[in-house]
Amino acid sequence: MRKNWVGLLILGLFVFLAGCSQQATPEDRLETYIGYWNKGEFTEMYDGFLNDGTKEAYDKTQFVERQQKLKEDLGIENLEVSYTKPAEDTEWNAEQPADFPVQIKMDTIAGPVEFEKTLTLLHEKHGETEDWFVEWDPSFIFPQLEAEDEIRIDSIEAVRGEILDRNGLGIAVNGGGYNIGVVPEKFTDKTKKAELAKILNLTVEEIDAELGQSWVKPELFVPLAKIARNNTEVLDKAIAIPGVAAQQVAMREYPYAEALGHLTGYIGSITAEQLEERKGEGYASGDQIGRQGLERALEKQLRGKNGVRIWIDKPAEGAEPITVAEQPVTDGENVTLTIDAELQKKAFAAMKGEPGAAAAVNPDTGETLALVSSPSFDPNEFMLGISGDRFKELEADPKTPLFNRFAQAYAPGSTLKPVTAAIGMEAGTLDPAEGLEIKGKTWQNVSRLHPEAPNPIDLNKALVYSDNIYFAQQAVKMGNETFVEGLKKYGFGEDIPFAMNLAASQISNDGTIDSDGQLAATSFGQGQMLTNILHLAAMYEPFLTDGKMYKPTLLLDEEDSQVWKEGLISAENAATLRTGMRKVVVDGYAQSANVPGLALAGKTGTAELKATGEERGKENGFFVTYNEDEPDMLLAIMIENVEDNGGSDYVAEMAAQIFK
């Protein structure tokens, strides 16, 4: 019996000592508490760690829900709480509070926040448990925050940068427009509702929905639709109806409308998909974002950064607000283009709404002076939120105004012939003075447009009469390898180095030429060859610069005259081609460009479309030209389906109008 009693005593003592050795220190408790704090696990912090006094002062809702909401509203991320470790020989007295300096860091939507406070732990008994518990107040969320205070957020919207042309003319600007709406007590003729709906491209039901909102009062203006400043036709018709009014509002404006529509693009409300893609970049639902064209391509430069301020609102009368964090507003950058907006407007008008594309470049710098897709759309319509019916109307238009043609690649037809000649002359296989005897209309499946051309056919005659057989024979003479290598030197098969995405020009679908038949067709821009309109214009630069092709630029602050390709043609051979291209206009089949006072030179081209059914027999017409007296602009134009309009001479007439 005595042995049992002694054994139990020893066991009890062991358990007591073991319990004492496992008693948590205030530092142990603090480490665990900070672990939950860094994870944002506020419920665990409240339930297991706060002392009685704190729980009496702040209920669970105040502690947990408030901090969770602030974390979401303020975009709190990368919370990092740490503490200064006490000396190793520190002894803790349960009768005394344990104080620890804690360091708190976090990132918010208004920038980083960092502060230090002293956190106190008290030894208390909670039920059967004795331990160290945290004394807390709202200043551990932000310094100087008290229970009655409110956290406020101020947002200052950044001003979007504008897009200007080379002469400082605005092509995407922060202008204004009109809010068209009604004052209910004055809009009493209900028969006019359908008329107004038609003018504003709305339905009567949509107007009724706006007028039925809870805030609407008889004397208040109720906005129905926004229109661009230049939409005077709609404005005049709408405000002619009694009770209809217009209020000026700030909005993005595109002064050149359709002429620059595909180039500028437009802004619009951010979509859910874009919001997800740009998570963490500061976008929110309802923000405006570039949706097409340069507005989209230059979004980072144009957007700017909204200013945000987080501050503490004290309820006491006269109390000064306390700023917690502040990110100053940074307005977007203005971007100046190499584009000449008035030139672009003239080119767009000269194309008469015909489906096609045009590009103008400065041959000495590589600057893009115009980049046109015709027909086009008015970006003001899209920026304001185009109606479903209007969008369907544009989609159903057989001329496809929503299709960006300058970004596509097309068979260049005979406009490639000067390039073919240049490759042959540089390879030593083409002697421009040597004449070929070409008889009949065809040679190995290659047809001639002008079999009446007098023999022998030298390079000049071949250019004037656009003789397919001459260029086919020259390509066969130089061979696949030489011809393909020559085309690659002109940039075929490469992505064009440009600020917007353009389809790469190709020699063929796989970049090779597999037969003499394909070689012959490619020599005059058919077969599987494709080129975009800007590259086509740039390919003529070496004929004016004695061999150099410059990187095409679109932003005015880009370095000028960056050599993209060089050594393409000798000065002597370039002069030979210039002579031939002037004769194309004077003696050849671009007579509409043979205008008094303008020494235009260049090359026409037609490209047959490889199509079946209704598309069979369709041709695209081209003209690449420059003014021999002032060769500071190269212009390339392509118009679709010119077979019934006089072929490529129809395009030459448009070019002449632009130069005039």
TrEMBL record:
Q: Signal: present as a keyword of the record? A: yes
Question: Taking every annotated instance into account, which residue ranges of this chain make up the domain Penicillin-binding protein dimerisation?
Answer: 156-318
Where does the signal sequence lie? 1-24
What residues does the Penicillin-binding protein transpeptidase domain cover? 356-659
Pfam entry (one): MecA_N
Indicate the principal place this protein occupies in or around the cell. membrane
Q: Where in the cell is it found?
A: Membrane
Give the superkingdom in one word. Bacteria
Q: Where are the transmembrane segments?
A: none
- Keywords assigned by UniProt, alphabetized: Membrane, Signal
- NTF2-like N-terminal transpeptidase domain sequence ranges: 25-148
For the keyword Ribosomal protein, the answer is no
What protein family is recorded? Belongs to the transpeptidase family.
* Protein name (database record): Penicillin-binding transpeptidase domain-containing protein
Give the originating organism. Answer: Planococcus shenhongbingii
